[in-house]
Amino acid sequence: MRILPKKAFLTKRRKFILVSLVLSVGLLLIQRLTVEQRYVAIGLLAVMSYSFTAWALLAEMRGIIPWVNMVLPVMYPTAVALFYFLLPQAAITRMIVGIFFAISMYGLLLTTNIYAVASIRTIQLLRAGRAVGFLLSILTSALLYHVIFSFRLGAGITTLAVMGVSYPLFLHGVWSYSLGERLRGEGWYALVGALVMAEIAWAITFWLIDIPLASVLLAMGMYVILGIFQHNMEGRLFARTLQEYLWFAGIVYMVVAGAVLMRWVS
């Protein structure tokens, strides 16, 4: 009689669920701390996110995956925790944010696993994983840009902060279309994207603009630039695709500029 090997109780999917729940509980607990304690706790949450994700993906931790593929699993929980400062502290808000974060974090862990596996062999879920990774990159950038502008640190520091946040997000987003074990041209893509985002941030610090509009405008920049980079990495940056991105950027810019002008006039 053939004896089948026992399946491990903690499968990879169960690990992802466990990590998502633990980080969600940590996110909710942080909001019960004092303002001074929260920043230290958010740093611990980022360390926990990296450690738990690495534990769940232990078999795939090789090459540059331990740091490039871990960008979003670390930055996304950090962005949500920081942005949570700015939300109403009602119980219903905590519940909605906690549920959304748990679901989205689970999806992000699945995406991180897809990238890790696809760096070895072809996988059919790669396109879906890239779509999820792209959307969460834009969401993460929007939340972090909102937080940066909320601190009102001045034009210079704000510009450097936007550049510092943008670089790893661009690096991760571009790498997700090469999935190489070594960085080749991805670092240059990320540097160019971060510099453009810094220039946009520098310009709008002189505008009389609301913080949500500033974060939307910067997130739009991330959407357009990262989208163009990814299409170029895939070899599908056609003229029509570029026009669509530029049209989108133009429409968003006109809407935001119109709102700013209306505020100046009033």
Automatic annotation (TrEMBL):
Pfam families: DUF5656. The chain crosses the membrane at residues 16-33, 39-58, 65-86, 92-116, 128-148, 154-175, 187-209, 215-233, 245-265. The keyword Mitochondrion does not apply. Keywords: Membrane, Transmembrane, Transmembrane helix. InterPro entries: DUF5656 (IPR043715). This is Uncharacterized protein.
